[in-house]
Amino acid sequence: MIKKYKNIIVIIFLLLLTSCGYTPILNSEKTNFYINDLNFEGERKINNYISKNLKKYQRIETTTKKYDIKIISYYEKKVVNKDDSGNPKNYNIKVTSNVNFILNGKDQINKIFERNTSFSAQDKKISEKKLELRNKKNLSNLISEDIIFFLINQ
To answer: Rounded to an integer, what distance in angstroms lies between the CA atom of residue 131 and that of residue 103?
Structure first.
């Protein structure tokens, strides 16, 4: 008898779980905006990563919200601590983007998006440079997702 109830509960749970209606938030097909003009200043690599993620939202559609966006990006790398001989032991990198949104050519919104992370120094400078570049790319992708979330929720 208990086994029947467990089976029924499992079946109901699976039916509810599969029909929950999940859709990805970053689905560019169902957005209520598009990016008309996209301008960049500042750190070139960061701007390239952000631009790559925002390009798919530049399709002109019949949506009501049209944004002109100007992004000024900054990159900062600091030594957090050093070992006894004075060599860097840990780094903190910070990517900041000052974004100016102009909605339909009228309303202007200015917002700062900032992400940071820490990583330890590597024995080989080449592997440290690769790690820094990967972290820079990841932080830039997170900032571009933040920008998209901001635009979706406006």
So the answer is: 37
Q: For residue 77, give the DSSP letter.
A: E
DSSP summary character for residue 129: H
**In Å, how far are 7, 54, 72, 108 from 100, measured between CA atoms?**
55, 14, 9, 7
**Residue pair 93/58 in contact by the 8 Å Cβ criterion:** no
Tokens of 150: 């901001």
Quick one: 137 exposed, middle or buried, by C-beta within 10 A (0-12, 13-18, 19+)? middle
C-alpha span between 57 and 65 (Å, rounded)? 12
DSSP type of residue 26: T
The pLDDT tens digits for 75-115 are 999 999 988 888 888 999 999 999 999 888 788 889 999 99
> Per residue in 35-70, pLDDT tens?
888 999 998 999 999 999 988 888 776 667 888 899
- The answer to whether the CB of 95 falls within 8 A of the CB of 115 is yes
| Residue labelled with tokens 């999940």 | 22
Convert the pLDDT of each residue in 15-40 to its tens digit. 776 666 655 555 545 677 788 889 99
